[in-house]
Amino acid sequence: RGLDPTHTHKVTIAVTKSVDRTSFKVSTNSTGGLIVMASDQNDMETYFKLILIGDTEVGKSSIVLMYVEKEFDDTQACTLGVEFNVKSIIMKGKKVELRIWDTAGQEAYLSMTRTYYRNTSGCMIVYDITRKESFLNVSRWLEEVRQHSANQNLVVMLIGNKADKNSRRQVSTEEGKAFADENGMLFGELSATKEGDIAQAFKELVGNVYEKYENDPQLFLRDSLRIKTPNKPENSAVD
């Protein structure tokens, strides 16, 4: 069935959650990267690969869950490996499929998650405003994604999560914004419990990614965005 802007799909990689195998095929390309294809993409024109990284327990999975499913689960377990979600949106009148990779923050999974940095269009680096250490580690995460993404046009957004716990704040808004400005990143603070905050953050990130590609049509032929053309086989994909 076709994908519409209000419909979401979820595929989980290396974790024990359900996989919608009727809607997606997962295979490996020649470089070892995963290619994930919806079984029916006739009405889909573009896709962006987005990734969330950061220390463990900063709320990456909660952010994705709220954005994709409009749910919040404060008992959610830590991600083991990588989780994959899909959300379709409308951007300037065009259907865009967001392929969102939620990665584990544990050191043990670092070598595996690096595989998923490649050809990423947009990245959210998430820290917990109540845990100073998670903010101090942002520079390491930034270096990781810029080194391994292989995309010179990568848009990175720094997100301070748990803004609803202001009384326990250890990182000021000014600190976060200053770091983002110094490193050419977008910046925002949000609470994973508030759908509006998260929707706005993704809107800004995706809007910047879309504008970058829109301003240089040649970029549509590479990196992680695909333009569907009538002459291509239905299962053709680039990742």
UniProtKB/TrEMBL annotation:
Domain of life: Eukaryota
Keyword field: GTP-binding, Nucleotide-binding
UniProt-recorded Gene Ontology molecular function terms: GTP binding; GTPase activity
InterPro entries: P-loop_NTPase, Rab_GTPases_membrane_traffic, Small_GTP-bd, Small_GTPase
Pfam family, one: Ras
Assigned protein family: Belongs to the small GTPase superfamily. Rab family.
PANTHER family: DRAB11-RELATED
Protein name: Ras-related protein Rab-18
Species annotation: Octactis speculum
